[in-house]
Please model this.
Amino acid sequence: MTTMHTERTVDVNVNGAHHTRTVPVRQTLAAFLRDDLGLTGTKLSCGFQVCGVCTVLVDGRPVSACTYLAVDADASTVTTVEGLAEGERLHPLQEAFVDGFALQCGFCTPGFLMMAKALLDSCPDPSREQVVEHLEGNICRCTGYEPIVDAVLAAARSARGAEAVGE
Ligand code: FES
Ligand code: FES
Model:
């Protein structure tokens, strides 16, 4: 007789905190983050990997948490929007989004921020075209996109400036 394994234990580091949990094998990473860990900054909309609102980083790589399974994050490092700020200090991307009015309702913002972080981590000086291309899987119903692209470019400039000062 075949035994169905419906649960598995996962070890995952989320925003610097280590968690060991037994989860249903079909539980999505979004459900794990929101329901099990209470990290509701990661939003859910389409549920089909179409809108990008649920984007989080797994080992630095952007994934759609609405379809990515929690068990596949085992032994990984996950970063969500809650992991961007350092204490009271906003991440340069968050500052640029606020300063550049790159959000209105804000529902899409966590996904854009995480997607943009993935870009700037690997490409600190992107062209406008690279930003547009990188964000093409993220949908915003409010802003018209231009302020978001401007904010990502401003954050990149700000991060490079901070690095130069620290050199
Ligand atoms: S909710 Fe995951 S891509 Fe839309
Ligand atoms: S700010 Fe409302 S959906 Fe993007």
